[in-house]
Amino acid sequence: MKAKKLAAIALGAVTAVSAIGLLAGCGGLQAKGPQYEYTVIESDKDYSFDKEIPVIDGNVKIDGKFDESFYTSRNWFQGHKVLNNEEGTLEVTTYFSKSGIVVAAKLRDSRPVVYSEHVAPGNSSCFNCYFSIVSKDTPNYNVYEIECSAGNVFNIGVMTGFGVKAVETDGYEIYSAVVRYGDVSKGECFGYDVEYFIPWSLFGTQTRPELVYLNSTMVSATLDEEGLLVNGSYRIWYNFGYNQSPEISVWQNYNQGYSFDKDGFVSNKITIQTSGGGSVSEEWGYDWCLTGDTVNFNIKPDAGKELTSIVVNGIERKSEVKRGALSVRCSGNIEITATFAEKQDQ
């Protein structure tokens, strides 16, 4: 199979939790890779699954490919990782089936993807989240830690006063799939997709809850030639709820995290319109905000231009712009109209 740096080379695997095997090690992969430039070349796609692909409720294939029609209408959380010299993106959505929850995630990183049988899933490239559910019928106040590594090793535990305790999964139909983009062994893989299914019954309910909380974490790692963490600790644990939304940063607590319902990610819409020569952008580049958060906008006139008006939800806010920035408290959808004009001679 060919490996191209900007081509999506998909390597897939589907496993039931009770049948996860060891993975090939891939240490010392330090090649510099592209950032956010992933082109899918259909002729290079090669999906290879070692087991029959599970189908949930007759319409959801757990294969990591996200080609079901409902995915196009999902609301996706879109996170932008910015940390020192590293960048990356994480997109997450959910599907509430009759029998359980499907979680889908797309991870893209500036650090190459690595995984090994010598380290725990959370010490490889990994999609990690802290999870709780909201159900009026059968309340469950537990917080679960769920991990799925780029090597498709899946773990689920529950938070206790003594740390994370493994959840007994025997008898539950739990499935996970990972599709990787690029050749991992050559250090040319900088992105992977994760899809998994967990039945509601594992959380003590037989009915769909109203809401779930996901505090999503993007784990990057560097492994040595033996497939072990460099210096025993070199990994980046990037939590979007901690780094970007301080009000939901306490991931150990029930109801802390980004909210997802039957339509996917729960958020408010940001709409920006500009005229006259200039730009307005949310600090992370997002077109969404969470109720209660303070959202910062960067305002940049073109050369020779200046801001003459910035209206937020019908209210003029130009006097509040300081050093090219404006802070807005999110209490619903945010609509911004900004006007720029030729700079007046002083």
Structural write-up:
By secondary structure, the protein is mainly beta. Helix content is 1%, strand content 43%. The chain has 1 helix and 24 strands. The protein has one helix at residues 240-243, and strands spanning 10-16, 55-56, 60-61, 77-83, 86-96, 100-109, 126-134, 144-149, 154-160, 163-166, 175-181, 191-199, 211-221, 235-239, 258-261, 264-265, 268-275, 278-282, 288-289, 294-301, 305-312, 315-316, 325-329, 334-342. Strands 7, 8, 9, 10, 13, 14, 15 and 16 form an 8-stranded antiparallel β-sheet that branches. Strands 1-11-12-6-5-4 form a 6-stranded antiparallel β-sheet, with no helix packed on it. Strands 19-17-24-21-22 form a 5-stranded mixed β-sheet, with no helix packed on it. A hairpin with a 4-residue loop joins strand 8 and strand 9 (154-160). The radius of gyration is 22 Å and the shape is globular. The termini are far apart. The model is unreliable at 1-12 and 17-47 (pLDDT under 50).
